[in-house]
Specification:
- The protein has 495 residues and is of the alpha/beta class.
- It has three domains: 2-272, Rossmann fold (3-Layer(aba) Sandwich), CATH 3.40.50; 290-428, Four Helix Bundle (Hemerythrin (Met), subunit A) (Up-down Bundle), CATH 1.20.120.640; 442-494, no CATH class.
- It has helices at residues 37-55, 71-80, 84-101, 117-129, 159-166, 169-174, 211-222, 237-252, 283-289, 292-300, 312-327, 340-343, 358-365, 372-387, 392-408, 412-428, 442-461, 465-477, and strands at 2-5, 10-13, 21-26, 59-64, 133-135, 141-143, 188-192, 207-209, 227-233, 257-263, 266-268, 271-272, 308-309, 480-484, 490-494.
- The protein has a four-stranded parallel sheet, with helices on one face. Strands 5-6-7-8 form a four-stranded antiparallel sheet. Strands 12-11-13 form a three-stranded mixed sheet, with helices on one face.
- A hairpin with a 4-residue loop joins β1 and β2 (10-13).
- It is elongated.
- Bound molecules: zinc ion.
- Zinc ion (ZN) is lined by residues 27, 215, 240, 244.
């Protein structure tokens, strides 16, 4: 299994620290607004990574945080005349619902920054004690970047260049607090402030932690000092992840993460989809128009390290693609006894520990008479793609080749066993492939029966008894018994 590591700029063989257990942390949302397709891409990319590592037999501890302390949350709360907690809770709930609707696996742990304040304060104090952080004359606490010689290594930035670049007037004018720092690139660990309801006491006065220290602290307390995979969007590489490394490595004298995995952006007309540019489409709006499978295909048919170009045409063609896959499953008999791991992902959260591994999958598939050559070559090609840095673009193309094969197959038994292979391996990538066309509701069905009875009554009054008897017999076949009373009144009941 090869994974591209941003830190080394190359694909490396993935070997977890602790045997089959994988510790993975992904920077979650800052909950001050609705999420857009760019956030959905992050959710889907790391969802597939968790699913595939689980398929390979790894036990993944997938931790994704909620950033519920942030200046943006405070400002939103002031705009809406709410508390920061109310704003954060509302948007965290919305995000959780959307991630579930996108059929993503729930994180094993989802720590909130507000639950780790004492630990953050301890972390900062230890950095001060070790000489890596200092209290400025304003009372804020800063990380002293000059003290960490490796600063800039993840983002491939040279510390001296950063220091000289940051001295330029342009940078200084953007950061009016620079004059209180030892170096303009030093970043805040604790900011003193006086907005009453969103401050916490600390040895340095009432205030709030910086965003970077939140992640470093949650990783330390939920997962440990060194983890296997740290993930997030590409925009987090600098300065957020660089700063996380600086804090954690200086405290623990060991690397924070062995693999740094970053997904690329969703672009709109070559510009990154973002809140600030206002060119975003919310996940809620997408889900109102497209199935979760369509959104998943649209995102995952691209390699996660390449940009995705957003367009309604692209989504429509993904919808057609999903339709093709579903169509090739139409030969499946309804009476297949699907195992829980393939069916229990409708409305309830699925945790990584519930995902099936390869042994379970193959055991299920082998229960259906198989042409072993087809089966093995497909599985090999699928794994080859996914073992090469989670190449979902190629893995999905294998699903489509399999779908073509099903359509061309004339033997019904072979058709069915290939369809089972398709549905199962599509599941490894998180696709449901269930027919999502709307179903007739019970009340509409009731009205339809009344309508048929009404039409039958027209036949009776015009003495077309052949037709009215035909309708009565057909309704009976459907389990609906029609009863004619003496006064030309008709009622019905389910048999
Ligand atoms: Zn983070």
């Amino acid at each position: 299994m090869l994974i591209y590591n941003t830190f080394s700029n190359s694909k490396e063989v993935f070997v977890p620290i602790n045997g089959r257990n994988v510790l993975m942390y992904v920077c979650g949302p800052t909950v001050y607004d609705l999420s857009h397709l760019g956030h959905a891409r992050m959710g889907l990319v790391f969802d597939v990574i968790v699913r595939y590592l689980s398929y390979l037999g790894y036990k993944v501890n997938y931790t994704r945080n909620i950033t519920d302390i942030d200046g943006k949350i405070v400002h939103k709360a002031m705009d809406l005349n709410l508390t920061s907690e109310q704003v954060a809770r509302f948007y965290a709930n919305a995000f959780a619902k959307e991630m579930l609707a996108l059929n993503t696996v729930s994180p094993t742990f989802e720590p909130k920054a507000t639950d780790y304040l004492p630990q953050m304060i301890d972390f900062i104090q230890s950095l001060i004690d070790k000489g890596y952080a200092y209290v400025s004359s304003t009372g804020d606490v800063y990380f002293n970047c000059k003290q960490f010689k490796e600063y800039g290594k993840l983002a491939k930035k040279n510390l001296n260049e950063l220091l000289s670049g940051a001295r330029s007037d342009q940078v200084r004018s953007q950061d009016e607090l620079s004059k209180y720092k030892l170096s303009p690139i030093d970043f805040a660990l604790w900011k003193v402030c006086d907005i009453h309801e969103t401050v916490w006491p600390s040895p340095w006065g009432m205030g709030r932690p910086g965003w970077n220290i939140e992640c470093s602290t949650m990783i330390k307390h939920v997962l440990g000092e060194t983890i296997d995979i740290h993930g997030g969007g590409e925009d987090l590489i600098f300065p957020h992840h660089e700063n996380e490394i600086a804090q954690s490595q200086c405290l623990h004298d060991k690397p924070l993460a062995n693999f740094w995995v970053h997904n690329n952006f969703v672009n709109v007309k070559s510009q990154k989809m973002s809140k600030s540019l206002g060119n975003f489409t919310t996940i809620g709006d997408l889900l109102a128009n497209y199935s979760s499978d369509t959104i998943r295909l649209f995102v995952l048919q691209n390699n996660y390290r390449h940009p995705v170009d957003f367009s309604p045409e692209g989504l429509k063609s993904a919808r057609l693609g999903v339709g093709r896959l579903i169509q090739s499953l139409s030969s499946l008999e309804n009476n297949i006894d699907w195992p829980d791991f393939l069916t229990s992902h409708a409305q309830q959260p699925v945790y990584p520990s519930l995902l099936p591994d390869k042994a379970k999958i193959i055991n299920f598939i082998n229960g259906f008479s198989f042409n072993n050559n087809d089966h093995e070559s497909f599985v090999n090609e699928f794994e080859e793609a996914m073992n090469n840095d989670f190449n979902t673009a190629i893995a999905i193309s294998k699903l489509f080749s399999l779908s073509d094969k099903i359509q061309a197959e004339s033997d019904l038994k072979n058709k069915q066993s290939l369809a089972i292979l398709l549905k199962t391996y599509a599941f490894i990538l998180g696709f449901k492939l269930t027919d999502q066309t709307p179903k007739i509701q019970a009340n509409v069905a009731h009205d339809l029966v009344n309508l048929v009875i009404e039409l039958r009554n027209f036949s009776r009054t015009s003495k077309d008894f052949k037709q009215s008897d035909y309708i009565r017999a057909k309704l009976l076949e459907l389990g609906i018994e029609v009863m004619d009373s003496s006064k030309d009144k008709t009622s019905w009941k389910l048999k």
